[in-house]
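Bench notes, bay 3.
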Amino acid sequence: MTEGTGASGDFDFLVGSWDGRHRRLRKALAGCEEWDEFTSTTVCWSAFGGAANVDEITVNDRGFAGLTVRLLDPVARTWSLWWVNSKDGQMEPPPVTGTFTDGVGLFYCDQLWEGLPITCRYTWSEITPTSARWDQAFSVDDGRTWETNWTTWLTRRPESSD
């Protein structure tokens, strides 16, 4: 993985098939301490010589799938990430935008959450050839404090012998 450069290939670590273990707050920004835990499978591929990256996540026991589209802006040297949920088929604007530094990817955007203005942060960390961690956190005070409301631990699936 290229680190801190905003370069093609930054998301190459994610290419392949993964099993996911998720922990998501049942209600974000509501003082909720109850977590929903579930599993998923993800398939990720690269495009544009590593300057684009797409993954499809399937969450069978929750009845939805999702798609993340990641695009590198080679001039700004930042990545923009968009999420699409199969339940509504809408690409969530705006994208989170950022880059990797020292093996950790931080991506931010300002958006509305149930009518409340928030800052959203995605964090990619603990990246190895066989595992990675993704967190989503919200801030209602311009990033002074954060509520992590979704964590995913990914484990690479063994290569198929088919």
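Next record in the batch:
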Amino acid sequence: MANALGVLLLGLVAAGPRAESLPLWELGAGLGVISFPDYRGSDQREMRALPFPYFNFRGERFRVGRQGVRGMLVDTERVELDFSMSGTPPVESKDNRARAGMEDLDPTFEFGPSLNVNLWQDATRDTTVQLRLPLRAAVATDFTHLHNAGVVFQPNLALDFYDLRGWKLGFLAGVIFADQRQHDYLYGVPAQYATAERPAYRAQGGYGGAYITTALRRRSGPFWLAAFARADTLNGAVFEDSPLVRTDRAYYAGIALSWIFKQSKARVESSEPE
């Protein structure tokens, strides 16, 4: 659960192409608080405090940080092709009214390539616009077995401001598409779990909604502070008529504070976020 919640909390707004001189690696620890729905479309939500390790490695081709584990396949001034990961937290059906009596939703882990195109930047590189095209395969697991959870495509547009009196501000807007397997895993109701109030339902692949995220972050000495808010709409999603969809809105918010207590003396030019 911690890994999946960490993805939600720390997947704020990814870096744009502004390069800085940064340590090759950093090690620390942090604490975050996040409020999130049980799943997109649920009318129930949770708030959790989450301790997490802070680790950044900024290698030339292999990188680890707040964007997850990334393998840089292509990295030029204009275009990046990397390999990244994402995920979602588990849902215990006994605690969710819409899913009562159904099997739990295992945490999912997504991995796949992302093509990132740097569309525009100002002369100082303090403001950037980037198009990102991540395509990821998803697996669901309770750590005793793996289940194919489909494929997700989330094209998005990111606007980053890198120098607002020491703060960095980002906005990201995108849409979500997924195949039938992904949507049916989250929103399908098998016949054996059908009730008078929850008819059997088989979800289709296609459009899965849109979202907008804003994030604010700052590095001050050994401390890193970040906050984010995200709003999703499921209006027009192919699974909007699922009996598990109780609302067509989803809201997320979180704040995290990290203490970085060790870093390398070696430094590299990197566009990874601070």
